[in-house]
User: Fold this.
Amino acid sequence: MANISEKLMAVLRCPVTGSTLIQDGEELVSTVNGPAGVPLRYTIDEGIALLLRPEQITS
Assistant:
C-alpha cells in the first residue's frame, strides 16, 4: 500500500468539494459529501493520487 506523506496530505484537497482528504487503503476519500450525497473517492496509482473529477474519468 502506498502511503501519502502527512505533509502532502495537509495540502491536498478534493477537486469537487474543496474538502480535505483522508487515505483509505489505496484511495483518498473526501471528508465532505459530493453532489450525490456520498464522499468522493480517488485512486492512488503507484503512489500518485489521481485527483480527477468523476466526469473526467474514462473507462
Residues 6-9 form the longest helix (4 residues). The CA atoms of residues 29 and 41 lie 5 Å apart. The longest strand covers residues 27-33. The mean pLDDT is 89.
